[in-house]
Amino acid sequence: MSAMTSPGSTISRNFNPLQSSALCDQGGLYVSNKRSGHRARSHIYAAVDVATAVDVINDLGMDTLTLLAVTVIVVPAFKIIRASPILGFFFAGVVLNQFGLIRNLTDVKVLSEWGILFLLFEMGLELSFARLKALAKFAFGLGLTQVMLSTIAFTAFELPPNGAIGTRILEFLFHSRPDLVNIRSVDEAIVIGAALSLSSSAFVLQLLAEKGELPTRFGSATLGVLLLQDIAVVPLLVILPVLESQNLVEESLWPMLAKESLKALGGLGLLSLGGKYLLRRVFEVVAEARSSEAFVALCLLTVAGTSLITQKLGFSDTLGAFLAGALLAETNFRTQIEADIRPFRGLLLGLFFVTTGTSIDMQLLSREWPNVLSLLAGLIVIKTLIITAIGPRVGLSLQESVRIGLLLSQGGEFGFVVFSLANSLGVLPLELNKLLIIVVVLSMALTPALNEAGRRAAEIIDEKFNEEDVLANFLSTPMAAGIDSDVTRPFVAFDLDPSVVKASRKLGFPTLYGDGSRPSVLQSAGISSPKAVMVMYTGKKRTIEAVQRLRVAFPGIPIYARAQDLRHLLDLKKAGATDAILENAETSLQLGSKLLKGLGVMSDDVSFLSQLVRDSMELQAQESLDKSDDREAEIMKPLQVRVADVTDARGSGPSTSSKRNSSSANKTNETDVLRSEGKAVDQAKHESQLQQSVNSELDGVLYCELDKGNGLPIKSSVAEGNQI
């Protein structure tokens, strides 16, 4: 037995797979050493696995050293030339792939995806659920519409099969190969259109983080669109197997799509509720242990766990990482978590950009560059136009819409996922799949340039609109429409200072001499129905009187005015102003808003705080005004008593006719009484009500009232023409 065991051990040490059949022919040895043979094979497989693992580790070790060297070189070099390091990592990936310096590209790509997870996790940490609600308008208003319209536009461009518009254009321009650019079926057109409608979260968010623009409304709208695109991947991945099976029937597609979507959304809701209460408690327990290692491990576990769960639910793993960050945004651990994961995020995200560069097939690119450039230009132009058109309809300015359109005009990393799955299912041919990946990768590489182009385009648009805003802000009296002008919008200014009129005309502003608060002056200038009026007099009383005259002449137009203080602001609103601006207070609020935005506070939160301060100041002014009204009511009491005495004296006559005569005889006495209290009446002119209640049988009753709604006197039929 010992003699037969020795050969067995020898076999295990000197095993050659090519000799296995010869060993099996030796029946006695095989039967008698059955158990020993199993052990030998186990040792063999274990040795092979260990060797493979060692090779993988060695390759990853060399790849890691290469990545670290690239990071050390790229980041400082591109910072010196003031370019985004993203481009450096991308071109480094192209070079490394061409020279074969990355040994284990598959495993490196898997590792690099952690960079995207950490990036989305960090973005989630910056957003509370209240801020996420603010993103809903951009996500569903802008993001959903963009995905749908982009998919429709790209799909229509690729139809009909075997004769698409886009294919004919490419063949006409470049005499390209029909077998490569020609779309064979509607399935291919739908897949390509949907995949190209997505954008790159990794490139865009990293770029916004570098520029410090995430807290702005522009950054928030961009983030909302990207989140919606992540969610849109779910139905797309559900539809792909249906397209592959050629079973695209409405009866089978929509129930399946609804079922998968409800299941995924339900699981996502449960994950949100469970994570909200569970994660906080887990982090508290680990933090109490005061172990930095355990805390970092918990951060990594949170990112990996939520990503895996959302992936099992059918969503993207990046959405899970973002959700985990949002769940922890309300906790006290946010700052420490950000500090712990930032080094991981930076290195792994750089690795992702490197692997993105390795995805380019240089031979195919050199052969099909006309098609690549044409498809790339079409992708950027179509997505930019769609987002620019939608943006103003969801509350964005034209400048913001143009910037977002250019920034999100590239393809996205989820396009790789869709194209790869479509290729494996046979929906897309292999060479077309490679061509589309090249287009997407190049568009991603252009993201920094597209962002800069969008910024400059926004500045050009802003300069044009700023000229008009300067004109509007320059007005010292109303602005109105309806006169010939060299500017895009027909504005005209009025001023009573000849030097101001002369200087403004030299600057190109259409300014006329006159009191623009008088309707007759406006009519003389040919302005019968202005669109809006701005009153910017420096005198308080003059401003109030101008607003009153304009409100009577133009009841339906918006009137804006400049207020000197809070009391003046309330008086202007009573006089009929649509709104009034406190010049000193608004300057302070603008400075405070800039400070908060610079500190990273989101634009929506800054606007909310500014409005809260305005409302608080207006409330304080109203309370102060009410107290003043109470004091003035005490001053008015002697007047009311004396008027009541006069009324009683008039009511003591025997007959109605004598009362009327007495009324006529005592009219002079009443006037004297009012004149004797004239000072008190003047103090209450704009903010109090005076009402004299008398016997209903008397004629010629004095009834005067100041309406608190607009400050204009409401006259009685008898006292018409009088004004207090």
From TrEMBL:
<feature type="domain" description="RCK N-terminal">
    <location>
        <begin position="434"/>
        <end position="582"/>
    </location>
</feature>
<dbReference type="InterPro" id="IPR038770">
    <property type="entry name" value="Na+/solute_symporter_sf"/>
</dbReference>
<keyword id="KW-0050">Antiport</keyword>
<feature type="compositionally biased region" description="Low complexity">
    <location>
        <begin position="652"/>
        <end position="664"/>
    </location>
</feature>
<feature type="region of interest" description="Disordered">
    <location>
        <begin position="643"/>
        <end position="692"/>
    </location>
</feature>
<dbReference type="GO" id="GO:0016020">
    <property type="term" value="C:membrane"/>
</dbReference>
<dbReference type="InterPro" id="IPR006153">
    <property type="entry name" value="Cation/H_exchanger_TM"/>
</dbReference>
<dbReference type="GO" id="GO:0006813">
    <property type="term" value="P:potassium ion transport"/>
</dbReference>
<keyword id="KW-0630">Potassium</keyword>
<dbReference type="Pfam" id="PF00999">
    <property type="entry name" value="Na_H_Exchanger"/>
</dbReference>
<keyword id="KW-0472">Membrane</keyword>
<keyword id="KW-0633">Potassium transport</keyword>
<dbReference type="GO" id="GO:1902600">
    <property type="term" value="P:proton transmembrane transport"/>
</dbReference>
<feature type="compositionally biased region" description="Basic and acidic residues">
    <location>
        <begin position="669"/>
        <end position="688"/>
    </location>
</feature>
<protein>
    <submittedName>
        <fullName>Glutathione-regulated potassium-efflux system protein KefB</fullName>
    </submittedName>
</protein>
<keyword id="KW-0813">Transport</keyword>
<keyword id="KW-0406">Ion transport</keyword>
<dbReference type="GO" id="GO:0012505">
    <property type="term" value="C:endomembrane system"/>
</dbReference>
<dbReference type="InterPro" id="IPR003148">
    <property type="entry name" value="RCK_N"/>
</dbReference>
<dbReference type="InterPro" id="IPR036291">
    <property type="entry name" value="NAD(P)-bd_dom_sf"/>
</dbReference>
<keyword id="KW-0812">Transmembrane</keyword>
<dbReference type="Pfam" id="PF02254">
    <property type="entry name" value="TrkA_N"/>
</dbReference>
<keyword id="KW-1133">Transmembrane helix</keyword>
<dbReference type="GO" id="GO:0015297">
    <property type="term" value="F:antiporter activity"/>
</dbReference>
<dbReference type="GO" id="GO:0009507">
    <property type="term" value="C:chloroplast"/>
</dbReference>
